[in-house]
Design brief:
It contains 25 helices and 22 strands. By secondary structure, the protein is of the alpha+beta class. It is globular.
C-alpha cells in the first residue's frame, strides 16, 4: 500500500490539484458502484464525462497483467448491472484540444496503449485519441498518468462540451486571417468543467477555423463555430470571428446558422457562456433524438435564439477569464527547431517524390513545411508512436497535431530536412503517401467496437484503401483529391455527409437473411468549412461498394465539363440518373449462389445484428441535482474511510460537508444557480424545504432535517470529538442523505405527473 501511495503522490505533484482531486473522486465512485451504493444511471453519465465508454464485445479483449487474451463477454458490458460491469473492457477517449501534442505526451500515450489496451492509439475525426479494450478498474491509473503529461479525459464524452477542435494548419496556413490556436486553447480551458456547461440535454461541439474557404475547421457542422475575421472599428483593425451556431451531422444534419457577422474577440468567451446557459435552460431533455442545440434553434428561429442569448449575456457577472488571455494571444508563437532552408536538388529516397506531392504543405513562413503522417484508419501502434516522438524531437519542437482526417502532422519542418524525415518515417512504417486524397479514407470504429455499428465501416475503408492504393499512380487528377468517408451507422461519426462520396451502414433482410448494406451519399463538400451535405442515392450491398466507387469516378472522369467540380457534376446529372447508374449493383444473389454477400468485410461470420447494444454517445440526461446527490454519497463514503483510519475530526467535517451538498442538490431543483457558500445553502434549504415542509417525512417528520442543523452546531462547539459521537454523526448524515434522495424522487414524480410543471422545473434548473 505504501508503494502505491508513493507513485500516486509522485504523479500528483505533476498534476493540477483540481484534476488530481477529480480522479480521486472517480476512483471512489467506481468503488461505490461496485458496492451498489451509486445508481448506475448516474454512474454511467459520470464515467462518460470522464471519457469512459462501454463498447461492443462480440470480438472483445481484455487486459490481464501483461497479456491480452481473447474473451467472450456479455453484450451488456459497462452499462449492465454490477454483475458484468467489472469484467467487460471498454473504450477510453482522450481529449487533445486543437489536436496539439508534444513528444513526451506521445511517448506516454504509446506506453499506456501497450500496458492497458491493445497497443493501438486511434486518432478520431475530432482530433481525439481513443484506446479500446480498457478495463474500467485501470482507468484512474490511466487518467493520472495522462494528467502528469498535461492530458485529460475529462468531458471527452457525455452531455457536455466535447473536445474543442481547430485547423491543424493554424499559425502556418498561407490563407488564414490569423492564428486561432490561442483562442481555441482559451475556449477549451474556459468551458471545461464550467458550471454553466453541466446541464445540457446532449453534447456540444466547438470548432475554430483560420479561414472560410478551406475545410480544416469544419465550422459549419458544429454547435458553435468561429472563423477568424478582422474588421476596422473606430479606425483600427480589430480581431474577431464570423460566428456560427446550430450545426451538426448525425441522422438529421443541419448547417450552422450565422449568429454574428463579426464577433469581437473579447466577446468570444462571454457569448459562449451565454449560449451554454440558454441551451441548458431551454434545450430538450426528454427526447434524446431532438436534444442538440440545432433543434432548439430550429424551433425558436435564429432571431429569437440570438435575442435570448444576448439577453443572457447582458445578465452575466463579469469574469476576468473572459479577457485575461487576450493580452498574450498576439505573442503566441511556435518556434522551429532548425533554421529555414529550401529543399535542394540532392539525391532523394525512393518514393519521396510521390510522398512529397501529397503529404507536404508549404508553410507561409519561407523555408518551412508541414509534413502529414498518414495513419490508415487512424491507427498507430505503440512502437510507431514512440518512433514518431523520436523523429519529432529530431526535426521539430512541440509542433505536432492530430487532424480531423485521422492523421498526424509535423509542423515547422525545415524543407531541407524533408528527405531525411521521409526516410525516418518509412523506416517505422509511416512513410505512406496519399494523405488528403481519395485513398485516404476516413472511417469511424463501426462494428469493430461500437455498440451502434450496423456495418463494418473500418472493414470497408480498409478494402477501399487497398484497391485505390494499387491504382493510385494512375488515378485521374480529377478524382485524386475527392474524399471518401464511411460511417458504420446513420449517426455520421465518420462524417459521411461532408464527403464527395460517403457511405453509412444499414441492414436489409433478403429472403430471411440479414445482409450488410451501405447507403450511398454523393456530393458532400469538404471545402468551405464543410460547405454542403451530400444526398442519399440508395442502398447497395456492402460487398459491391468498391464497384460503386469505381463506377461513379469513371463516369465523372468521362462526362465532366471542363473544371466542373464533383458536386456540380452530381447536381447536373441529377439524382434520378445517378440512382439508375447504380441500380444493377443493388441486387443481392441468393445465399446458395454467393454466401459472401451475407458476410461483412473482414468478418468470416454470417452477418447478424444480434450483438448490437445500446449506444452511449448521447449519455443519460442526469440533472445537476442528481450529480450533487451522488457527490454527497461519495463524500460520506470518504468520511467513513477517515473514521476507519481514526481521523475523527476529518470524518465528521467531511460528513457534514456531505450533508450540506445533499441540501444544495435539493435547492438546485428550485434555484439552479445557488451559490456553493454554506450559509446561503442552509438559508435557502430552510426556506424552501423546511419552512414549506417539502423535506418532511411522514414517519420522521422534520427530524432528518434537524440532523443537518444539529451537525453544524456540533462542529462549532466541539473541543474534540469522541468516537461514539463521530459515529452517531456519520449515521445521522446517512439518514439525512437518504431523506434527500426520497425528497428528490417525490419532486420528480410530481413533475412527471404534471407535464407543465415539469417544463417549468426544467427551465428553473437551466
Amino acid at each position: 500500500m505504501a508503494q502505491s501511495l508513493d507513485w500516486k503522490e509522485k504523479l500528483k505533484s505533476r498534476m493540477a490539484p483540481d484534476l488530481a482531486r477529480e480522479i480521486d473522486i472517480f476512483e471512489t465512485q467506481i468503488e461505490l458502484r461496485k458496492q451498489g451504493k451509486l445508481d448506475e444511471r448516474v454512474f454511467a453519465e459520470t464515467r462518460l464525462r470522464r471519457g469512459v465508454y462501454g463498447q461492443r464485445y462480440d470480438n472483445g479483449q481484455r487486459h490481464d497483467g501483461q497479456k491480452v487474451q481473447k474473451l467472450k463477454l456479455p453484450s451488456g458490458g459497462l452499462t449492465k448491472g454490477p454483475e458484468t460491469v467489472w469484467d467487460a473492457p471498454g473504450m477510453l477517449r482522450i481529449k487533445i484540444p486543437f489536436g496539439g501534442l508534444n513528444p513526451e505526451q506521445m511517448e506516454a500515450l504509446a506506453d499506456l496503449s501497450e500496458e492497458y489496451s491493445d497497443a493501438i492509439s486511434h486518432v478520431t475525426t475530432r482530433q481525439d485519441i481513443q484506446y479500446h479494450f480498457v478495463h474500467i478498474d485501470d482507468t484512474p491509473t490511466l487518467m493520472r498518468r495522462l494528467a502528469a503529461v498535461g492530458i485529460t479525459t475529462r468531458e471527452a464524452c457525455g452531455n457536455v462540451v466535447r473536445n474543442v477542435t481547430a485547423c491543424p494548419l493554424a499559425g502556418v496556413c498561407r490563407d488564414e486571417t490569423f492564428d486561432v490556436t490561442p483562442y481555441a486553447i482559451a475556449c477549451s480551458n474556459f468551458l471545461l468543467g464550467h458550471p454553466d456547461t453541466q446541464d445540457f440535454g446532449r453534447k456540444f461541439k466547438v470548432a475554430f477555423s483560420g479561414c472560410k474557404q478551406h475545410p480544416c475547421g469544419l465550422t459549419t457542422m458544429h454547435d458553435m463555430g468561429a472563423i477568424a475575421k478582422t474588421a476596422v472599428v473606430d479606425g483600427q483593425e480589430r480581431r474577431g470571428f464570423e460566428f456560427y451556431v446550430g450545426g451538426g451531422l448525425g441522422a438529421v444534419p443541419y448547417k450552422a446558422q450565422l449568429f454574428e457577422s463579426f464577433l469581437p474577440e473579447e466577446e468570444l468567451l462571454p457569448l459562449a457562456q451565454a449560449i451554454s446557459r440558454v441551451f441548458a435552460r431551454l434545450g430538450e431533455k426528454r427526447n434524446r433524438a431532438r436534444a442538440r442545440v440545432k433543434f432548439l434553434i430550429a424551433n425558436l428561429g435564429i432571431e429569437e435564439f440570438r435575442r435570448l442569448v444576448l439577453e443572457e449575456r447582458a445578465k452575466l457577472e463579469p469574469d476576468p477569464r473572459w479577457r485575461d488571455y487576450l493580452s498574450t494571444v498576439r505573442q503566441y508563437r511556435e518556434t522551429p527547431l532548425k533554421p529555414a532552408a529550401s529543399l535542394n536538388g540532392g539525391e532523394r529516397p525512393r518514393g519521396f517524390d510521390a510522398w512529397h506531392a501529397t503529404n507536404v504543405y508549404r508553410q507561409r513562413q519561407p523555408g518551412y513545411a508541414v509534413a502529414t503522417v498518414t495513419l490508415p484508419l487512424g491507427d498507430i501502434t505503440a512502437g510507431q508512436l514512440r518512433g514518431l516522438a523520436d523523429i519529432a524531437r529530431r526535426f521539430v519542437k512541440d509542433t505536432i497535431r492530430t487532424t480531423v482526417e485521422q492523421n498526424i502532422v509535423l509542423r515547422w519542418v525545415s524543407e531541407a530536412d524533408l528527405p531525411a524525415l521521409y526516410e525516418a518515417l518509412r523506416q517505422i512504417g509511416l512513410g505512406e503517401a496519399n494523405a488528403g486524397t481519395i485513398v485516404d479514407v476516413t472511417a469511424c470504429p463501426g462494428t469493430d467496437t461500437c455498440k451502434l455499428g450496423i456495418a463494418s465501416s473500418r472493414g470497408l475503408a480498409k478494402e477501399l484503401r487497398s484497391r485505390l492504393s494499387e491504382k493510385s499512380f494512375e488515378l485521374d487528377a480529377a478524382v485524386k483529391d475527392l474524399r471518401i468517408k464511411v460511417s458504420g451507422c446513420f449517426n455520421s461519426c465518420g462524417q459521411h455527409h461532408i464527403a464527395d462520396i460517403g457511405f453509412y451502414g444499414i441492414n436489409r433482410n433478403i429472403n430471411g437473411y440479414a445482409v450488410p448494406h451501405f447507403q450511398v451519399m454523393l456530393g458532400g463538400k469538404f471545402n468551405d468549412n464543410a460547405g454542403a451535405y451530400g444526398l442519399a442515392i440508395g442502398a447497395v450491398p456492402s460487398k459491391r461498394i468498391p464497384e460503386v466507387v469505381l463506377r461513379v469516378t469513371d463516369r465523372y472522369i468521362k462526362e465532366r465539363k471542363k473544371s466542373e467540380s464533383f458536386q456540380d457534376f452530381v447536381g447536373r446529372i441529377g439524382k434520378k440518373e445517378t440512382k439508375a447508374m447504380l441500380e444493377d449493383l443493388t441486387q443481392v444473389p441468393a445465399h446458395a449462389v454467393d454466401a459472401s454477400f451475407y458476410r461483412d468485410w473482414g468478418d468470416p461470420r454470417e452477418f447478424t445484428l444480434t450483438d448490437m447494444g445500446v449506444g452511449e454517445c448521447a449519455g443519460e440526461v442526469v440533472s445537476q441535482a442528481q450529480f450533487t446527490l451522488a457527490a454527497s454519497e461519495r463524500e460520506l463514503f470518504e468520511a467513513q474511510v477517515y473514521f476507519d483510519a481514526g481521523d475523527l475530526r476529518k470524518a465528521v467535517m467531511t460528513a457534514y460537508a456531505a450533508m450540506v451538498q445533499a441540501a444544495q442538490a435539493l435547492v438546485k431543483t428550485q434555484l439552479y444557480d445557488v451559490s456553493n457558500d454554506e450559509a446561503i445553502v442552509l438559508t435557502e434549504f430552510r426556506k424552501r424545504f423546511c419552512d414549506t415542509e417539502l423535506f418532511y417525512d411522514k414517519y420522521a417528520g422534520g427530524k432528518f432535517a434537524d440532523y443537518l442543523f444539529k451537525a453544524k452546531e456540533t462542529l462549532q462547539q466541539q473541543n474534540g470529538m469522541k468516537q461514539d459521537g463521530a459515529l452517531r454523526l456519520l449515521q445521522e448524515a446517512q439518514l439525512f442523505i437518504d431523506a434527500a434522495h426520497s425528497c428528490y424522487n417525490k419532486l420528480s414524480a410530481l413533475r412527471v405527473a404534471s407535464p407543465a410543471g415539469g417544463q417549468a422545473a426544467n427551465q428553473g434548473e437551466g
